Amino acid sequence: MPEPTTATTAPCHVPSEIDAVIVGAGFAGMYMLHRLRGLGMSAIVLEAGTGVGGTWYWNRYPGARCDTESMQYSYSFSPELQQQWSWSERYAGQPEILRYANHVADRFGLRRDIRLETRVTAAVWDDGKRRWQVTTDRGDTVSARYCVMATGCLSNARMPDFPGRESFRGEVYHTGHWPHEGVDLAGKRVGVIGTGSSAIQAIPVIAETAAHVTVFQRTPNYSIPARNGPMTPDYEQDWKTQYDARRAMARQTRNGILANFNDKSALEDSPEARQRQYEARWVTGGTTFMASYNDLITSKASNDTAAEFVRNQIRSIVKDAKTAELLAPKDYPIGTKRICADTNYFEVYNRDNVSLVDIRNAPIERLTEKGLVTGGKEYEFDAVVFATGFDAMTGTLLKIDIRGRDGQSLRTKWEAGPRTYLGLMTAGFPNLFMITGPGSPSVLSNMLVSIEQHVDWLADCLGHAQSRQCNLVEPTQQAEDDWVAHVNEVAHKTLYPSAASWYMGANVPGKPRVFMPYIGGVGRYRQHCDDVAAKGYEGFRVEGRVGERVG
Ligand SMILES: Cc1cc2nc3c(=O)[nH]c(=O)nc-3n(C[C@H](O)[C@H](O)[C@H](O)COP(=O)(O)OP(=O)(O)OC[C@H]3O[C@@H](n4cnc5c(N)ncnc54)[C@H](O)[C@@H]3O)c2cc1C
Questions:
Q1: From the CB of 286, is ligand 1 less than 6 Å away?
Q2: Where are the alpha helices (DSSP H) in 152-298?
Q3: Which of 155, 399, 400, 436 to mutate to test the pocket of ligand 1 (most atoms within 8 A of CB)?
Q4: Which of 177, 232, 239, 496 is the most exposed place for a label (fewest CB within 10 A)?
Q5: Is 202 near ligand 1, meaning CB less than 6 Å away?
Q6: pLDDT of residue 510
């Protein structure tokens, strides 16, 4: 099937006044549009890219695929869609997920309200009118009652600022901005900077044809074999006949994934039983390895047993002992940085055309005309691939000049780290919503589950406001302070803050170290949001005319 990546319709017109502007046409923005239409609202999606799909539109690097099973990493809101769509593999690759996103855009007639190649540059609150003035890089100004930021948690690709970056004469790529026409790295000497999940997916594929791949590693990552393979008709049917019940169960789990969760401590098992448990998970494959026991993210002693198992697997796969030790993470608990799923990642280091360079103690000094210098040695390449991740969760939002009440800028408000109520709103910025914002489970979960939960909650909230002729929704400062305290308290009961991860903002120099997502669990979080709604949107002011509390 050809891959539709651009709109097949004429560019949609941006009206000067509208009920809602949605920023971003990934899975969050598309579903939000669908739900707002259902409320009879006028809405438009503004998207910087030339196509829909968000993450799956931008990340086209070799080997890009999801590491949540596709039967679960898909929308659940339409029974017909989930029954009629068929995934070809257990974990779909990027092109297939992008086709799915385009299918959804067509199936639900979304394109007529999506304006592509339009980047939102500013959003300014007008307190008198109770509307947002949204400005784009095309010079449009839209006045909107509501502004929904569906800008994505991992959509601001981070390019490290190495000295001499401009001097390199070869090809330069970032995994998160991969050229749409594809890249031919066959027969080339390639340098890959970074060993996070994108690199772990890309390196084995690049190594198949490149002359040589040199991987520059600062921090090794724990990775579990994905055991990807073709979708079998039986497996698909099994899911499809029980979809409603399984989706309902997944929504109540810790991270929105049915993972055969083992509800006991790792320390309750004997060393032999633990070994059998980990081996079975290793054979099944995938990131649900972390569901082997119920305390892997809370007990260091339990976590150590899982971490050591994975290190031993790495040692048994990688033939060169020195390389194996470099690849085996030792200074942070397993799962506290995003755990990866791979296909032949550790095996790739047994190839003659792949080498690993440790840059932990000898950081990259500079790029040169021919390559880069680290540890006083120059490495030469035809192409350099930056697999350096994202300014996660807040980076994309803060690129937009967002100004709330009294001209307060979001950048200033969040200088010491993001502050939200439920990850949905921030005080002082009325009618501005975030889908999977900081302070919600977001990146710690199956994002499709979290996206649908946020969009559904928000649509209900706006329906509530609409039915009471209200035009303003805003969290109270107290509700926000209490939620931020709760998010921190829960995070610090786990091992997560002990790792210098992008969850903590640690991959971006100067970014405040705050644990950004909510670790309390998808099920618990959903219940909390539902309770808030049931109590008349507790912690929010939902108002009609100025000063009048309605609903
Ligand atoms: C390589 C990779 C693999 C992943 N694998 C998984 C996985 O296996 N499971 C999982 O649950 N999640 C995974 N994720 C997370 C993934 O981001 C989410 O699952 C999901 O796709 C996010 O959808 P979204 O709509 O919220 O955001 P995005 O898909 O990021 O879409 C946001 C959109 O907003 C647009 N935008 C941003 N700023 C502006 C602006 N100022 N003006 C206009 N447009 C703007 C962007 O161009 C983008 O298209 C992965 C992410 C990456 C990068």
A1: no
A2: 197-209, 233-241, 243-251, 271-284
A3: 155
A4: 232
A5: no
A6: 85
Tokens describing residue 264: 């006991």
Cα–Cα distance measured from residue 410 to residue 19, given in angstroms and rounded to the nearest whole number: 22
Residue 15 contacts residue 44 (beta carbons within 8 Å):
yes
| DSSP conformational letter for 11 | P
Q: DSSP class of residue 286?
A: S
pLDDT-derived band at 10 (thresholds 50, 70, 90) equals: low
Give this prediction's pTM: 0.96
Nearest to 417 by CA among 493, 494, 497, 474: 497
Where b means 16+ CB within 10 Å and e means fewer, 289-324 reads bbbbbbbbbebeebbebbbebbbebbeebbeeeebb
Give the range among 6-15, 336-345, 358-367, 460-469 with minimum mean pLDDT: 6-15
**250 close to ligand 1 (CB < 6 Angstrom):** no
CA angle at residue 524 from 53 to 499, to 5 degrees?
A: 70
Look at residue 117 and tell me whether its pLDDT is greater than 90. yes
Backbone angles phi, psi at 282, to 5 degrees: -65, -40
The two structure tokens encoding residue 549 = 């509390």
68 CB near ligand 1 (under 6 Å): yes
pLDDT of residue 12: 77
Q: Is pLDDT of 376 > 70?
A: yes
